[in-house]
């Protein structure tokens, strides 16, 4: 799998600790929504550091969008979140991942369950659905600490209002909004739809920290979802 030279085209903060970076990648063949890439930085003395990040953009050639959560003691995320500027260069390798991906050719309804920055590959799926103009029912349940921790907050709000068949729900674990009917707290059974509430069982994608993924998967199985239909992706402190 070759390394591609990438140039930072644009970048902006999504939250105080998460940043979207747009990369121009000549020769990039494209990817499927849900896949990830390796990112390699090389210092002036030749030292290299590599980390893996999910792709946030819908599939396209020659261009990638990453959204990176800051890890304060990391080697790659501090540069991407705090220092990368248009014109800076790095290397990427991929696309990587065969199981945790979605394309418009898949006809089943989709349930997306995100914890924190686990929204990134699921947002790629939402964006690809919008780009392709398909009508599969999509239901996103996004768990974040507070409203200030929600990545893509304006885009998700707009898509939830204007995209037929897309349902967006946000739940907060630490503090919510005054109008919220749900008190803050960790994801629980009532936050997720049971299989009995859908005509066709959905394909389920769950992404977030390991503990969140384990909890969400257990809740989904308890609600009647088939284990074979639940696709999970976990990330750790260095990813």
List keywords for this structure.
239 residues; Elongation Factor Tu (Ef-tu), domain 3; Rossmann fold; 4 helices; OxRdtase_FAD/NAD-bd; 5-stranded parallel sheet; 2Fe-2S; Ferredoxin reductase; alpha/beta
Please, could you describe this protein's structure?
The chain contains four helices and eleven strands, in the order βββββαββαβαββαβ. It is α/β, with parallel strands linked by helices. The protein folds into two domains: 3-96, Translation factors (Elongation Factor Tu (Ef-tu), domain 3); 110-235, Rossmann fold (3-Layer(aba) Sandwich), CATH 3.40.50. Helix 3 (153-162) links the parallel strand 8 and strand 9.
Summarize the model shown.
The protein has two domains: 94 residues, Elongation Factor Tu (Ef-tu), domain 3 (Beta Barrel), CATH 2.40.30.10; 126 residues, Rossmann fold. It is 18% helix and 33% strand.
> CATH-wise, what's the superfamily of the largest domain?
Nucleotide-binding domain of ferredoxin-NADP reductase (FNR) module
Q: Record the strand order, biggest sheet.
A: 4-3-6-1-2-5
**Helicity level:** 10-25%
Rounded mean pLDDT is 95
Rg for CA atoms: 18 Å
| Top-tier CATH class of the largest domain | Alpha Beta
Largest sheet: 6 strands, antiparallel
**Percentage of residues in DSSP E strands:** 25-35%
Query: How far apart, in Å, are the first and last alpha carbons?
Result: 20 Å
Q: Which ranges are low-confidence, i.e. pLDDT below 50, for 5 or more consecutive residues?
A: none
**How many strand units?**
11
CATH architecture of the largest domain: 3-Layer(aba) Sandwich
CATH topology of the largest domain: Rossmann fold
- Helix and strand content put the structural class at alpha/beta
Principal-axis shape = globular
InterPro entries: Cbr1-like_FAD-bd_dom, FAD-bd_FR_type, Flavoprot_Pyr_Nucl_cyt_Rdtase, FNR_nucleotide-bd, MRET, OxRdtase_FAD/NAD-bd, Riboflavin_synthase-like_b-brl
Cofactor: FAD
Pfam families: FAD_binding_6, NAD_binding_1
Keywords: 2Fe-2S, Iron, Iron-sulfur, Metal-binding
